[in-house]
Amino acid sequence: MDQLDQTSQNYSLTAAGQRNKVLRNTMWLLALSLLPTIAGAWVGMATGITAGLRGFVGFAVFIVGLLAFQAAIFKFRNSSTGVFILMAFTFFMGLMLSRLLGYVMGMSNGTTLVMNAFASTAGVFAVMATLATVIKRDLSGMGKWLFAGMIAIVIAAAINLFFGSSLMMLALTALSTILFSFYMLYDLKNIIDGGETNYIVAATHLYIDIFAVFQNLLAIFGIFGGDD
User: Fold this and answer.
1) Range of 11's domain?
2) Which residues lie closer than 8 Å to 109 by C-beta, 6 or more apart?
3) What is the 3-state secondary structure (H, E, C) of 160-197?
4) Burial level of 198, CB count in 10 A (0-12/13-18/19+)?
5) How many domains does the chain have?
6) Could you say which of 13, 76, 134, 199 would form a disulfide bridge with 25 (CB–CB 3.0 to 4.6 Å)?
7) End-to-end alpha-carbon separation of the chain, Å?
8) CA distance linking residue 14 with residue 4, whole number of Å
């Protein structure tokens, strides 16, 4: 009986160590991914390469690029190639962010708005990381509801491209901020509980959550706090 208890304890320690390793590697890779994002945003703003990506064209390029990169990352998730693809993906996301970033930075208080959006995003991440460590309940069931919500928002956003409703866009931006904040909690909890064991995939999911929250908050701050 003592031997079984010792074996069980050793297994638990090994599993905990593995989860901590995945979490640590995920955070390092997530921090590293910010560099290509900044580079992509700078290139986009400096060259204006994304200036023509408006309306449905910009929406389509973003969705296709997002899905293609995610598929490639998942395919090469168990090799160093996956890391390089992730870095290319975050550069692409920086390019996609450059139009909004350039618009906000063109305001007299643009730098302050960007810093506020960054600080707010960091605050959301800190809150969700704390909740993920405190909550003992299994949150895996949230996944299907979050995914359904995300699909609904994407479809509504695509429809709104034809109507051009500013009110609808603002509502979807606010809902998307809430949705991806909870996605952040879900993905962090999934790593902590050992549901996600691949740090490349884990970093990709958290990156998308953080990017979405930052982009949405930046848009909201630009709408309500921008000074021309």
Assistant:
1) 2-225
2) 225, 226, 227
3) HHHHCCHHHHHHHHHHHHHHHHHHHHHHHHHHHCCCCC
4) middle
5) 1
6) 199
7) 73
8) 15
